[in-house]
Amino acid sequence: MRAKYIDCGPNQIALWRTALADFDIEVDVNTEPFSVEDLPGMLDGYDICIDDHTKIPQEVLSRCTDLRHFVYFGTGAASILDLALAGQMGIEVHTIRNYGDTTVAELAAGLMLGAARQIAPQHHIIRGGGWTKLQGIELRGRRIGLIGLGGIGREMARICAGIGLDVVAWNRSPIADAHAASVSLDELLATSDVISLHLALNDDTRGFLDADRIAAMKRGVLLVNTARGALLDEAALVGALESGQIGHAALDVFETEPLPEHHPLRTAPNVTLTAHCGFWTEASTINQVRLVMGIVEAIQSPLQRSA
Fold it and tell me: Which Pfam family, any one of them, does this sequence belong to (predicted)?
């Protein structure tokens, strides 16, 4: 089966070439810019599409008639592809998991620490010529509530337990050995000094932290989101930041990315923002590349090639 990697970036091409020695695969790699409208032609005659980040609209996917496999460099393929349409076209969608659990959890912990000590606001004050000390919060002994205990949530629990936080968590099903005490969502919202989101985005979790749940939080809570922007009602978040219901929001993800130029989060004084970089370290990128190559190798196995 012929495979094409449609959007290999400069940070990945060297890792891709190095890892090739360990895998029996045949892949054509595109490193050049392209318009999404070019994809049907680019994928003509290819059975496998490897996609790092390119969103494929329905009308474009519907014209990629040779595809039988779609391999995504991530977990939530629904964010870039219409899964129902792919199924109707007979395209099997493959995703990877757990490639960057530690990487993302470390950013979440870093954002939490930065928010607690008001690092971003003080940085901007000093860069602007000022010199103002802002009082911080000592986290040891405080309670952090983790919403979701997948791989990233469990890593966050481990890190926070090491800091000395009282770690509690809410998850739809019990998780053993997670460095976190299981509590109800209501208790987590009402008692946590820090809340960190670690849910997957789907129809059930979209807008999970809405105005009502934000109102149920402990006043002045520190909120961390490195999962998906659409888990939060951003309008309610902005209002809560303005009122002080949320003391500080540390965010790596947003409903619309890039964050629009005049979005109120860009000028809010009590936020720390990063550009959806939680997954991006060399270690996690190596993991991604090798997991994707393993999927392609399984598809292109001698048995499959002879079919």
Answer: 2-Hacid_dh
- Residue 302 main-chain phi, psi, to 5 deg: -50, -35
pTM for this one? 0.88
* Same structural domain, 44 and 157: no
136 with 266, same domain?
A: yes
One of 97, 257, 266, 305 is an active-site residue; which one? 257
Question: How many structural domains comprise the chain?
Answer: 2
Distance between CA 157 and CA 196 in Å, rounded?
Answer: 10
Same domain, 50 and 107: no
Query: Within this chain, do residues 155 and 208 fall inside the same structural domain, yes or no?
Result: yes
Both 268 and 121 in a single domain? yes
Domain that holds residue 219: 101-273
- Matching residue, tokens 């998780």: 175
pLDDT of residue 218: 98
Taking only the tens place, the pLDDT of each residue in 186-242 is: 999 999 999 999 999 888 999 999 999 999 999 999 999 999 999 999 999 999 999
- Residue 123 annotated in active site: no
Of 154, 198, 213, 228, the catalytic one is 228
Name which of 54-58, 98-102, 225-229, 299-303 the model is least confident about.
299-303
